[in-house]
Task: structure prediction
Amino acid sequence: SEGFLFKSHCVHFHAISTNTRHQTPIRLALRGGDDTMNSDGGSAMEDEESDEDFEQLSEVALDTEMTPANSTNLHQDASASGLQENLSLDTKQNFSLKLSTLRRNLPINLNKSLTFQLLDVDYTRPQKSSEVANHEGFTVNAFGVTQEGNSVHVAISGILPYFFVNLPKPLDEEQCKIFLAKAIKKFESQANQQYAYSNFQLSESCRIVNCSYVSRRSIWGYQRNESHYMQIFCSNPETVKRAATIFRHWDASLDMQEVFSKGPIVFQTFESNVDPITRLTTDSNIVMSGWVQIPSDQLKWSDSKTRLSHCDIDVAAHFSSVRALPEKEDVSPFLIGSFDIECVPEGGRGFPDPNKPLDRCIQIGTIVYRFGESKPLANIVYCLGTASVDDESVYIREFEREEDLLMA
Result:
């Protein structure tokens, strides 16, 4: 069984939310996609009266949260009550105007530290070895909103996941070097045998990077004194799991007689099952939904070719430059997009099955709120076929094909 170690006599606990169900509305609001973004991360929208432009406006407002509109004054002058009044006018022009006011077009100071409320952190497990991060660490995507309301995406790099193995005795510097070399050789040998039976092939990007001799106390049972451990750093979370498995079944006394003169040596692993998001937040003292800050000189701003999101601010930064702000307890004015999907089975009986061609999605209702406000900013319903509603504040979008409804 896995164990956890005390770093010192003073142990801090952090409230970390990793429940993706609660993150879904925020993730929807922050990471949507659209095809109308310009090179500055803004929205290439014009306030025209054509149906084509209106379709673009409605899609952008729902698919991507808080991308800047063309007019700053428009956003600043419109209150929530005013937006509701616009909705009551049954015209496409007024509704497109209302959607555009959801966006922020506030000036961004490139010479100022980036401070934002962290709303979501995501790490996508790679499917191929070529997609795995290299020896410099893997990257996680952090999303949030500034105090002014600008949406933020930060690609945080340089993160090296790790785990611990117990040692029967302390090691000197030379023995640590031997341990690392033997561990790398053992991992490559065993991993290649495992990968020979799968489509996933071992590459240089999937490896043990470094190790460090440390003293810790296990939380299992009563431990009066600290014990000896080796902290093993890997290139990515997948390597951690594979390496830990190899260590648990490895008698190192057979391969490292220069280090361990007596055997057998049975390694016990610690903290190899900690997910990368929890590792990131705990090691940097970051609290989910808390505020973080990155110095301006540590930010790498994305251009139209390198940006990875449709957020207002799209940057990259090293893990070591991210600083938590526990004293800041404000809440950013982020948008929340909640949706409800209605599906019907063939013949109207049973539960809908996506594998059955005649079981269809017929309606998707979306409502947009700004956090802290009681009245919705937008009500849009996507329908398969025709539909009508008595409430003038609800805009209906009709589609002939189910595919078009889902893609909208």
Confidence is low (pLDDT under 50) at residues 8-91, 127-134. The domain at 1-30+103-331 is CATH 3.30.342.10 (DNA Polymerase; Chain A, domain 1). The two ends are 47 Å apart (CA to CA). The longest strand covers residues 208-218.
